[in-house]
Amino acid sequence: MAATVTDFHYGAVTPVAAYLMACLGSALGLRCTVRSMRGGPRGKKNGWLSLAAVSLGCGIWTMHFIAMMGFRAVGSGIAYDTRLTLLSLVVAIVVTAVGVFLVGHLGSGAKVLAAAGVLMGLGVAAMHYIGMAAMRVDGRMRYDTVTVALSVLIAVAAATAALWAAVTVRNLWSSLGASLIMGVAVTGMHYTGMAAVSVHAGHTGATSAQSSIDQLSFLLAMIAGPVIMLVVAATIVMFDPDLVLGDEQRSAPGTDAVRRGTGPAAGLYAPRPEAVNTPVQHRR
Asked: Which residues, listed in sequence order, are joined to residue 74 by a DSSP beta bridge?
């Protein structure tokens, strides 16, 4: 017997929270990738790219499991396998690292973007379905092949767009706008994949179901670590003035000339002749 499946057990709370986490991870990943493009030692560049990968991976993974809090199959119990759940997190971070390091070191050429986008998109889809495999139901889960394929295509398109934005969009507000769009794409991929799921209830003896409170406690414990990592990444980004101000401040016309004391605006900041320290002469 097919169980009634819902992804919105808590109403709009879980999809909205999942979307916001996807946006946060995307925004941090984009800004960190932008920072890595500004030159400097190779080790520092790799550090920013690593932070970008962790931010994107944790954001996508956290989005997935926040959304899963709203999943219920009436008539079928649900439990989670801890090892597979953690494996899905590792996969999310590794595949995003492959993508950002490829474009970070090889540039934004069409071939590089296509290869990195496909690899990263397939990895994100793999993360999603590994996370689904970690879910134990008292029955059988089946997937609609066409809908699964559509979710994979969305993942590849979203990954390619994210990598393109990471190496192309430099302005702060443009990056934030791109992250909002990325949040829609990543969340849309998740719910498209969930639309492919059907559960046929029936005792299989495969698992011992958790109560709703146990499920919620497990998922909250799982996402605690990635959320802390996102907070740390946000703190690092906030304390980097170049990332907060964006390129528009760095590239303002005449800025460098003013700092060097040359150019048409230099006189605004140059000391007036009378302000220069000179011996004071007293009239007799």
From this structure: 4
- Distance, CA of 44 to CA of 27 (rounded, Å): 20
Rg (CA), the chain: 25
3-state SS class at 2:
strand
pLDDT tens for the chain, 284 residues long, are 677 888 898 889 999 999 999 999 999 998 888 888 776 788 888 999 999 999 999 999 999 999 998 888 876 778 889 999 999 999 999 999 999 999 888 887 889 999 999 999 999 999 999 999 998 887 788 999 999 999 999 999 988 988 888 778 777 777 788 888 889 999 999 999 999 998 887 655 444 555 667 778 888 888 999 999 999 999 998 887 665 555 444 444 443 443 444 444 444 434 444 444 445 555 54
Q: What is the DSSP string of 6-70?
A: ES-TTTTHHHHHHHHHHHHHHHHHHHHHHHHTT---HHHHHHHHHHHHHHHHHHHHHHHHHHHTT
> Is-contact 18 66, C-beta < 8 A?
yes
CA dist 143 and 145 (Å) reads 6
pTM of the model: 0.78
